[in-house]
Write a structure and sequence with these properties.
The structure holds three protein chains of three kinds. Chain A is built from 15 helices and 13 strands. Chain A is α+β, with helices and mostly antiparallel strands. Chain A is globular. Chain B starts with a helix and ends in a 7-residue tail after the last helix. The relative contact order of chain B is 0.13. The longest helix of chain C has 18 residues. In chain C, strand 4 and strand 5 form a beta hairpin. The chains are: A alpha+beta, B alpha+beta, C alpha+beta. Chains in contact: A-B, A-C. At the A-B interface, helix 2, helix 10 and helix 15 of A face helix 5 and helix 7 of B.
């Protein structure tokens, strides 16, 4: 069995969607991860929300682990468990210790990304009443399923104690179940290609391409430390499964639509907000890093350049081949892409939509316009929660409208951001 | 308080940097005095001090150690704070320079409070709707405050447009709203 | 009081708390010029392990696990303290490392 390394398992489509052993994957920071999970729990309540998040984690981790174990030649249960735990650590999700058989058992997590990061970010402000590590729990269940050749959904997981609730470690129980979930359509590279439009070039392409390639080369070597955490760009980074984000978002939307349709708009708003959170913290953190300065040079306060940089980062993080289709300083910015992780998932699982549903993309585009025009980058600001509030509270002077959407049958998705 | 009354009471107190008077139970700023070079925002400070005194009162009551004479002294790196309830309606907070001698501070606080007790109105301010106070409490303490109302709307099922005008909520909606705020802040109850 | 603004730290390098979510683990030093950056890297080479993956951003590891990141083209120097550094010790530790960096710069000054 060969030593596990993320880099050879990672592949970008020419349209810049990223895959890890054939599973759609992206890089996202703890701010985004926590905000999205919180939104799901706000929408469904902590019990249903936690259950959905655990199941989503189990589903996509199961597919990932099957593929990685096959690639690594891990055939026996101990080998497969070893691969699973090491992969979890390398992806920046923390350390898991498993003590389970096909009939169940327990998992213990230390430095699990969600619980640890929640405690770091919010632990001194509010008390958490429910565990935070549904992703780690679902992953642990999938690890047992794959290790012992069980079907997807054969193992249930439930986090009993969590560092976010001030426990010393995260303890997860694993139980075998006979109630399997309905199988859902698989999403891999072929499905993504089928939902991808033609690649185009936009403005600033001479800047975007080389930076994006440099960043991809840099992130190829990014992996969890001995704790299983990735400290980079001032945040805690994870390589994460896009299917997890998508399933929890779209299933929550469906549930809210069915139970309290008047809340659907608020949920969509908060999913857009997750795009603001990502761009402010991850993109901002990358721009302010010495790594960026070494690769690109010192920052300048030029909105066009900052937007070009955002396109490069979006591509390198695996979000798709983002282009600047149009830009007029202080007036208009048009982001276009032939694919997105949201549209790939939606088209594969739900088909054509009546209206655009790429909420993350919509929020990200709006946040990019705000950051490009309103942040004094050369002063190297501290990207604090207070600064975030200052930039985004009470609405921003921009409006984002999705004018074309792959989910609605268009060949590309396009967000037009205009000054209000 | 009429113009300059507070100033007249406190302006001669050595090492005093600011005084904030918080109207209870709403934790709203009633009046303040700041030394010319201070840049604090009185409205922000006043509400936190009101909450602090309320939490302190509840904690002492739980210990069966509360008395109306209680006074909170905080020695931080840069400032020496003395907080004191004046009747059930007001909390007065004095912020002194950190190096001010504690004995001198206590003496001046006692004298100033005696004068303020005469000047502050005795009529209890009209209590504002509970929903409004819940909303203010949420905005004050929720992480990512600008999304807090939307989060409460999702959790409570009460449309965000209604939560934006909390004074018009029905009794049932207020209960739902309060439960959602407790959940967001990780609290069993809201002490308002 | 933490050094959240430019602060003289005994030597030619200054210290400023950098942006991060890691509670005072990341510190920016004042800029050095290109020639000083080269000298700094050379001066640190005996005590620090060079773990650079790219020529455009050099990363050296202190025996105590702290990292020094140097951007040769701009002279930016950043100290990344090891995460096990106790909270209360972080600023003192950053000052100690910046002192070592300043000393390395001084002792490698061209004659």
């Amino acid at each position: 069995m060969s030593e596990l390394n993320l880099s050879p398992l990672r592949r970008y489509l020419p349209e810049d969607l990223m895959f890890l052993a054939g599973q759609p994957a992206v890089y996202h920071c703890h701010h985004f991860n926590l905000f999205l999970d919180q939104t799901i729990d706000d929408a469904l309540g902590p019990e249903l929300g936690g259950r959905l998040r655990t199941r989503a984690a189990r589903e996509f981790s199961h597919h990932l682990l099957q593929a990685v174990c096959a690639k690594q030649g891990a055939e026996l249960p101990p080998e497969r468990l070893q691969v699973a735990l090491e992969l979890f650590r390398l992806m920046g999700h923390g350390r898991l210790h498993l003590d389970a058989s096909p009939s169940g058992g327990a998992a213990r997590g230390t430095h699990l990304h969600y619980g640890f990061a929640w405690h770091e970010k919010y632990g001194q402000k509010v008390r958490r009443l429910d565990p935070a590590d549904a992703f780690g729990s679902g992953y642990a269940a999938a690890a047992i399923e794959v290790a012992f050749g069980l079907r997807l959904g054969a193992m249930n997981a439930h986090e009993q104690s969590c560092v976010a609730m001030r426990a010393p470690a995260c303890d997860i129980t694993l139980d075998a179940t006979q109630t399997l979930e309905e199988p859902r359509p698989f999403i891999g590279e072929a499905e993504a290609e089928a939902a991808t439009g033609p690649a185009e070039n936009g403005l600033f392409e001479d800047i975007i391409g080389p930076i994006s390639n440099g960043l991809k080369e840099f992130t190829a070597g990014v992996a969890g430390d001995e704790r299983g955490l990735v400290q980079a760009f001032g945040v805690f980074v994870t390589m994460h499964l896009a299917g997890y984000y998508n399933r929890i978002s779209f299933d929550a939307l469906e549930a809210v639509r069915a139970q309290s349709p008047h809340s659907e708009g608020v949920l969509a708003d908060l999913l857009r907000e997750s795009g603001h959170v990502c761009v402010f913290n991850t993109f901002g953190g990358i721009l302010l890093s010495p790594e960026w300065e070494g690769l690109v040079g010192p920052l300048v306060d030029d909105p066009g350049q900052i937007l070009a940089f955002c396109m490069a980062m979006g591509r390198a993080l695996g979000f798709g081949r983002w282009i600047v289709a149009d830009f007029q300083p202080e007036r208009r910015f048009v982001l276009r892409t032939p694919c997105s992780y949201e549209s790939t998932y939606y088209r594969t699982r739900f088909g054509i939509a009546e209206r655009p549903v790429e909420y993350f993309l919509q929020g990200a585009a709006l946040a990019m316009a705000q950051l490009a025009h309103r942040v004094h980058w050369t002063a190297r600001p501290q990207l604090t929660p207070e600064y975030y509030q200052q930039l985004f509270k009470g609405g921003v002077p921009w409006r984002a409208e999705q004018t074309r959407a792959i989910v609605c049958g268009a060949p590309v998705s396009e967000i037009v951001v205009t000054r209000v | 308080m009429s113009d300059r009354n507070l100033e007249r009471v406190v302006e001669e107190i050595p090492s005093l940097r600011a005084v904030f008077i918080t109207a209870m139970p709403d934790c709203l700023l009633y009046d303040s005095w700041l030394k010319a070079d201070e840049t604090w925002t009185s409205e922000e400070v006043a509400s936190y001090f009101g909450d602090l005194i309320r939490a302190n009162r509840e904690g002492l009551k739980a210990l069966r150690a509360w008395s109306s004479e209680m006074q909170v002294t905080i020695e931080s790196t840069d400032v020496l704070l003395v907080l004191r309830e004046v009747s059930a309606d007001f909390v007065v907070s004095f912020a002194f320079a950190r190096n001010a001698p504690l004995g001198m501070v206590r003496l001046h606080v006692k004298r100033a409070l005696a004068l303020l007790d005469e000047l502050l109105p005795k009529i209890r301010p009209e209590e504002r709707p509970r929903a409004l106070r819940i909303s203010e409490f949420l905005t004050r303490y929720a992480p990512d405050a600008h999304t807090a109302l939307k989060r409460a709307a999702l959790r409570s099922g009460v449309p965000v447009e209604l939560l934006e005008r909390p004074e018009h909520l029905s009794v049932q909606q207020v209960e739902q709203f309060e439960r959602s705020v407790c959940a967001i802040l990780g609290l069993d109850t809201l002490s308002l | 009081m933490l050094a959240t603004r430019e602060d003289d730290s005994g030597g030619c390098l200054t210290l400023r708390l950098a942006h991060s979510c890691y509670r005072h683990l990341i510190w920016d030093c004042g800029l050095v010029n290109e020639e000083q950056a080269a000298r700094l890297l050379s001066g640190l080479s005996r005590r620090y392990a060079d773990e650079s993956r790219f020529a455009w951003v050099r990363e050296l590891t202190h025996p105590d696990g702290h990292s020094i990141v140097v951007v040769p083209r701009t002279g930016r120097v950043q100290i990344r303290l090891h995460y096990l550094t106790p909270h209360g010790e972080r600023e003192r530790c950053a000052r100690q490392v910046v002192g070592e960096l300043s000393a390395a710069l001084r002792c490698c000054e061209p004659v």
